[in-house]
Hints:
The chain folds into two domains: 2-43, no CATH class; 47-154, Aspartate Aminotransferase, domain 1. It is built from five helices and ten strands. The protein has helices at residues 2-11, 47-55, 94-103, 130-142, 147-154; strands at 19-20, 23-26, 33-36, 39-43, 60-65, 68-73, 76-81, 87-91, 108-109, 120-124. Strand 2 and strand 3 (33-36) form a beta hairpin. The chain is globular and about 35 Å long. It starts with a helix and ends with a helix. 23% of the residues are buried. This is MmcQ/YjbR family DNA-binding protein.
Amino acid sequence: MRRIAEAEHHLGAFDRTHHLGHQTKVQPGSLTFLVSDSGYRGTVVDITDIRAITADLPRSYEVLVRDQIKFRVGQLVYLAVAPDEQTIGIAFPREEREAALAAEPDKFFPPRPSDERFRWIQVRLAALDHDELRELILDAWSMCVPKKVRREYLGTDQ
């Protein structure tokens, strides 16, 4: 618990009410850190990270629909943040969904039954690091933009 006290002292706001397993969540400003008896665990991604990644994506914009933050290209939603900001729904290749669900059930979970017909998957933000989040967002965005826009932004022939 020494590290938690140090985090409280150095990082400011401390919230003992949020527990993730044996870890305690500390939220200084817009950053979120996980600390435990064994020490620093790393940062957890949040809406601030999502906004930073999507801000530079061509044709991408944020909307609020029924108290839910969504990111679109045109009218196509490629990312939706749950109201509690703990999970996201994201565009994902339908043919790869079952493999992802089987391979990483702690990270991915299926969409609602009414959304299973769409190219969509649910993701727990606490299970992602920044690089994984960026990759998922870029892949989802790539599914919605014209190939020319994707090539110009990514600099590839994907």
